[in-house]
Design a protein that fits this description.
Length: about 250
């Protein structure tokens, strides 16, 4: 006996919910018509987070490591799960792009590339995976972002301190404000945040938070979860259990 009922109102409701969910997670909300560009940016990062989870599920629990090393070129690795380059762009980002090199408004934590096994993270709810950047473009629709065709600009990665953000393009910048209360370098890599004094961050447990610069610790991995942030301009990030920051670039 068949249990299918094509006229079931329950089935109709479930199908409607599924359609709405897809619309919410992907680029419909990233268009300039969105009532809140801050929210559109947040939903972009949520979509990227979902793609990172799917990538890890298909790769033995490992996050992307970047086709160019240390996270650089991460966008092309997860594009098959995103399928639309507009998801990589925040509409507050004024960077000029092109059809063959779309704007990429988000960077990847280089420490995550150095430790791609998500199951090793001490406190995923406190570890940054994705953050906001400016002046970056990349052909994310290609798995290697065009490296085999001579491309020189890739989706950026860095550890949240001056001198560490890399995309190959040159001129790429953190769009977060100076993180963790550090002293800026003479030629700092940090622009003011795009969203009312703060920026959106995708954390390793999949949720996105708007945070002010002083609430986020950048740097290389801490040795232990309770370790403080070290270094005036560059150094180690605070551990995930330090308690002085709401988020950190350290996975320990």
């Amino acid at each position: 006996m068949s249990h299918r009922d094509h006229g079931s109102p329950v089935l109709s409701i479930l199908l409607a919910v599924a359609v709405i969910a897809v619309a919410v997670l992907f680029p419909i909300l990233t268009t300039p018509r969105s009532p809140s560009r801050i929210d559109a940016c947040l939903w972009n990062e949520k979509g990227i987070g979902l793609a990172l989870v799917q990538y890890a599920q298909d790769n033995d629990g490992q996050l992307p490591d970047g086709t160019q090393g240390e996270g650089e070129g991460w966008g092309g690795q997860v594009f098959p799960y995103i399928k639309d380059a507009r998801t990589y762009r925040c509409y507050e980002d004024e960077t000029a792009g092109a059809a063959s090199s779309p704007v990429v408004s988000y960077g990847y934590n280089a420490n995550a590339a150095r430790q791609p096994l998500l199951g090793k993270y001490a406190s995923p709810a406190h570890t940054v995976l994705v953050f906001e950047v400016a002046h970056d473009t990349a052909d994310v629709a290609l798995p290697d972002e065009g490296a085999s065709q001579g491309a020189v600009s890739f989706s950026a990665a860095g550890d949240g301190t001056d001198g560490t953000l890399r995309s190959g393009r040159g001129g790429e910048r953190y769009a977060t404000g100076l993180l963790g209360g550090r002293t800026p370098a003479e030629f700092t890599d940090f622009d003011e945040p795009r969203h009312g004094g703060g920026a959106n961050y995708l954390l390793a447990d999949g949720h996105v938070r708007w945070l002010q610069p002083q609430d986020v610790s950048g740097g290389t991995d801490a040795a232990r979860p309770r370790d403080p942030q070290m270094g005036a301009t560059r150094g180690t990030a605070a551990g995930t259990g330090n308690g002085a920051y709401k988020a950190t670039f350290s996975w320990k």
